[in-house]
TrEMBL record:
Superkingdom of origin organism: Bacteria
Protein name: FMN reductase
MF terms in GO: oxidoreductase activity
Residue span(s) of domain NADPH-dependent FMN reductase-like: 1-143
Pfam families assigned: FMN_red
């Protein structure tokens, strides 16, 4: 399985720190191909309605990598009670059914516990619209869980471990269900 880890911000360090922790857990599985996309490292253009294959440069690279993934682990900070525009732009660059049959795990960094509903009211509806299968649990990490670009709360590490395991299990279960469905047809 091909797992793409997306650090969905071009500023700050907490989201990338969290996604590196996700990557470390994923690396325990030798049967996975893991790729980290940190939006800081790419120069994406704003979506203008073109088909994703019509973009060039970093924009084409990122969209194609996302389209080729089996599993997405998306990390996002919460800014001004919303996901960052850079992450929203990534979704706008993709076609509507871009995430069909892809399982998505979410990791959120925020300065306040009051922002947990942003994921429920903004990010999950976008992912559902794009046909993703979203893991029911996600990891919400607050400011106090970090110190010197490290996660210092052991519970956060445990929740990341659980999220990764649950997301992989969900992907395996859905693959089995889709295979049974496809096997019903004779062609």
């Amino acid at each position: 399985m091909h797992v793409v880890i997306l650090s969905g911000s071009t500023v700050g360090s907490k989201t990338k720190t969290a996604m590196l922790a996700v990557e470390k857990v994923l690396q325990q599985r030798k049967d996975l191909t893991i790729e980290l996309i940190d939006l800081k490292d790419y120069d994406l253009v704003f979506s203008d309605g073109r088909h994703y294959l019509d973009y060039t440069g970093d924009t084409k690279i990122v969209t194609e990598k996302l389209m080729q993934a089996d599993i997405l682990m998306i990390g996002t900070p919460i800014f001004q009670a919303s996901i960052p525009g850079t992450l929203k732009n990534v979704f706008d660059l993709l076609p509507t059914k871009a995430l069909e049959k892809k399982v998505v795990g979410l990791v959120v960094t925020a300065g306040s516990a009051k922002h947990y509903l942003v994921i429920e009211q903004q990010l999950k509806p976008i992912l559902s619209y794009m046909k993703a299968v979203v893991s029911s649990n996600y990891v919400f990490i607050e400011e106090q869980d970090f110190h010197l670009k490290s996660i210092v709360n052991d519970d956060v590490h445990f929740r990341i471990q659980t999220l990764v395991e649950d997301t992989l299990l969900l992907k395996e279960a859905y693959d089995e269900m889709w295979k049974k469905k496809e096997d019903q047809y004779d062609f």
